[in-house]
Design a protein that fits this description.
By secondary structure, this protein is an alpha/beta fold. It has helices at 16-19, 40-51, 64-78, 93-104, 120-127, 146-152, 175-188, 245-258, 266-275, 277-299, 326-337, 362-381, and strands at 27-28, 87-90, 110-115, 131-136, 157-162, 191-195, 221-226, 239-242, 305-306, 314-318, 339-340, 342-343, 353-357. The structure holds pyridoxal-5'-phosphate (PLP).
């Protein structure tokens, strides 16, 4: 049999082993997707488009009407100024991220990741024979440590990835921190990959800040996001990327050679989503309430400590007080408490912690926390 690609063994599986559907009755705190069905108006629009026969090949960068609506939305919400012709609508945010590395990187380029980082970045980077450099964030609040970044940058560094609100930590970087990251990228001449898929999900006074609003930022930032999280559209596979024209020409070429375009009939539905503020806000408010609720619940569980998440729908727990490593903790929580969570040692600089997704209803959150409390209390008595 012929050989496989030499890189394949270097590509990590991310959270896959802990995302497997658990036995019935287990509370799943693992899945990073809203528990809502996509709002009705959006579903109806997609169905209508199919019925109207909008099923042919189309413009590779995406429906002009959607690209224009998206640029207005980015400008209105986040002051991101981008020409609609510098937007590519992609089959998911993940694919947009991959295009950024594919279109702008070369083998052996180094990519700075603020760690613990969502593991898919490192997998994509490995596919392309580039190198992820995991730079630890500050332990107390998961915000960027600029000294650590200065220590990690090298002549081979080509990119820095910013993901705020963050998966897995729930941190939202302040405007001053984003300004410092842009200054850092300017000084070291780096591309900024701004994965802002959780941009509308910032809680308690935190807010997403775009690197493009700071001097030098727009020229080097790829703004990448999608519809999966804010509009509960994970299965649709629709996302976007925008940035400076020169970079976008390369990224557009990636899309034309690999996917041609995002599904034709989904794009008008994505435009409907941008208009459907009511549904989006309803889900957003629900996540904000769940975040307060789970944080209060977790605080009272013996053996673990937690942080107040500032955004996205994840909360980190420090499990080192239990004496278990995070994989043991996650395996035992599943077996003994019927609660599934993600051990953060799957990510560099994540040992000692587990990630909980609170993208599930209050009833499940209550029950999952009760089970963890009962289990950990019983261990303390042994
Ligand atoms: C940080 C981050 N970026 C991107 C994605 C993927 O988004 P999409 O479903 O649009 O590909 C996820 C999904 O979990 C994520 O957490």
């Amino acid at each position: 049999m012929p050989d496989l690609n030499d890189n394949i063994d270097q590509v990590g599986r991310g959270f896959a082993d802990f995302l497997a559907p658990p036995p019935e009755g287990v509370i799943r705190f693992t899945v990073g997707q809203p528990d809502f069905v996509t709002p009705e108006k959006i579903r109806r629009r997609a169905i209508q488009e199919i019925e109207d026969g909008n099923t042919f090949y189309t413009r590779s960068a995406g429906d002009p009407s959607l690209c224009k609506a998206l640029t207005s939305w980015l400008e209105e919400k986040f002051k991101i100024n981008v020409d609609w012709e510098d937007v590519v609508i992609t089959p998911g945010c993940k694919q947009a991220l991959f295009y950024a590395f594919l279109g702008l990187g070369n083998p052996d380029d180094e990519v700075l990741l603020l760690a613990p980082a969502w593991p898919s970045y490192a997998s994509m980077i490995a596919h392309l024979s580039m190198k992820p450099i995991h730079v630890p964030v500050r332990k107390e609040d998961f915000h960027p440590d600029m000294d650590a970044l200065e220590d990690a940058v090298s002549k081979n560094t080509k990119f820095i990835v910013i993901n705020s609100p963050n998966n897995p930590t729930g941190a939202v970087y302040t405007a001053d921190e984003i300004a410092a990251l842009v200054d850092f990228a300017n000084r070291h001449d780096l591309w900024i990959i701004d994965d802002m898929i959780y941009a509308t999900m910032a809680w308690g006074g935190s807010s997403y800040t775009s690197p493009t609003i700071f001097s030098g930022g727009a020229e080097r930032t790829l703004t990448i996001g999608g519809w999966s999280k804010a509009w509960a559209m994970t299965g649709w596979r629709i996302g976007f990327i925008s940035g400076p024209s020169k970079a976008m020409k390369a990224i557009h070429l990636c899309q034309s050679s690999i996917a041609s375009h995002a599904p034709t009939f989904l794009m008008p539905a994505a435009e409907t989503a941008l208009e459907d503020e009511e549904s989006r806000l309803e889900m957003q408010n629900s996540f904000a309430k769940r975040r307060d609720f789970i944080q209060q619940e977790l605080q009272t569980i013996p053996g673990i400590t937690t942080w107040k998440p500032e955004g996205a729908f994840y909360i980190m727990i420090d499990i080192s007080g239990t004496g278990m490593d995070s994989v043991t903790f996650a395996n035992r929580a599943l077996a003994e408490a019927q609660v599934q969570l993600i051990p953060c040692s799957l990510m560099p600089h994540g040992e000692g912690m587990c990630r909980i997704s609170y993208a599930t209803n209050i009833g499940n959150i209550k029950e999952g926390c009760l089970r963890l409390r009962t289990w950990l209390t019983s261990l303390q008595k042994v």
